Amino acid sequence: MLTPRALLVPTLPTLLVDEHRRHRTEMLVALEAQSARLHGEAPEIVVALSARWGSEGPFLVDAGKRHRTLTDYPGFGVEVRYDCPGHPELARALVAAGIAAGVRVAAAKRGVDSGVTVPLHFLLPASRLPVVPLSLADRSPAECRAWGATLRTVLAARPERIAFVVGGMLSDNQHAWRLRRDLPEARAFDERILEALRSGAWDAVRSGSPAEAERVQPQAGLRHLEVLRGFLARDGAGVVLCYESSPGVGAALVEFELG
Known about the structure:
Shape: globular
Structural class: alpha/beta
Order of helices and strands: EHHEEEEHEHEHEHHHHEE
Radius of gyration: 17 Å
Distance between the termini: 12 Å
Strand content: 15-25%
Helix content: 25-40%
Strand order of the largest sheet: 7-2-8-1-10-9
């Protein structure tokens, strides 16, 4: 069975810097509140989709017995480690269901990157529940949604309480972010996407122009949101709990009631 909510959680490493410096930012306070609520929902397994893990072939499901932390944001002076057990049996079940549904999906062994470690560091800091990491693949929006729908069907039918977490950003112009160069188009893009999520108008997520995408560089082409859309099984509205903007980069914490 699933816990009552799915979460979109930011993966910015600067959240770790804020935590290390004991800054009580709005995002850290919101994450702390969601951590308390998630603990109350008592998940037994976490299935975590990382927008930082991309594949040019099939969607990948990490079927390892144990996941080691992959440091993919070097140079911050603060590193999060979230070594955790896996759940090979559930991973294999997801792969089999995806193949049966006509989705290109395969098992892999990789470890957990910041698309998993940063969200879970804040949501489940004292826990090392079994985690099944998922990649994105360079597939069509329709196939992303089909994969999300398959995930929902399998996880809802399981006897364990399973939390579904998507680790990903909105705008993600890393060049502007590194140079601390303001990019007004990125904030406007984020606001449009957040309004689409608030209202359940999911078609608007893909309504931007190629020129906008070139400037804003949405993370993973927002394919993580397409998987999430399929997972929700309906175009349900989300609740934006917090939004944080840096030059060129947009981070949002959004919850979706599964119903």
